[in-house]
Amino acid sequence: MSFDELFEEAVKASERSYSKYSGFSVGAALITADGRLYTGCNIENSSYSLTNCAERTAVFKAVSDGYTKFSAIAVAGSGSGDFSKPCYPCGACLQVLSEFCEDDFTVVLSDGTHKLSDFLPMRFSEESMK
Ligand code: THU
User: Fold this and answer.
1) Catalytic positions (predicted)?
2) Nearest CA to ligand 1 atom 14
3) Which fold, 3-129?
4) 35-62: per-residue pLDDT in tens?
């Protein structure tokens, strides 16, 4: 699957967004190392802080199915149906991705491809605790 197609999967996943409080729909499309596609959307809650972002939904779905190695994620977010503005992953999602992904992991946004290390050049990890 091309990065453009992966981004389109993220846009499609955003259609299932449960975002009645913010009105901002986010979709994520995650590719496992062996080529499986996992998608996720943001899931909000009346107790706002319990909201789960689209990226973490996709990662948790994959990990709970036994997949922990990934090659790329696409993220698409919009409050209007126009997905041309990049939706940068939040810090919590970057930290969750960093648990499973290396620095060169690909993040596909509407403005092109990035590496995980572009967003998170230094990270807290199990190495930090040794
Ligand atoms: N959101 C995501 O799904 N992913 C991010 O990386 C940033 C923010 C969601 C959370 C909330 O439902 C909405 O966007 C507005 O913050």
Assistant:
1) 55 (proton donor)
2) 24
3) Cytidine Deaminase; domain 2 (3.40.140)
4) 999 999 999 999 999 999 999 999 999 9
Does the annotation count 55 as an active-site position? yes
Amino acid letter, 22: S
Domain spans in the chain, listed from the N-terminal domain onward: 3-129
CB 55 near ligand 1, within 6 Å? yes
Inter-residue contact 11 to 114 (CB < 8 Å): no
Phi/psi for 87 (5° steps) reads -105, 95
- Please identify which of the residues 5, 15, 55, 127 carries the catalytic annotation: 55
Find the 91 Cα to ligand 1 centroid distance in Å.
11
DSSP letter for each residue of 49-63:
GG-B-HHHHHHHHHH
Distances (CA, A) of 14 to 3, 18, 59, 69, 123: 17, 9, 15, 23, 28
Cβ pair 14, 41 in contact under 8 A: yes
CA of 99 to the centre of ligand 1 (A): 19
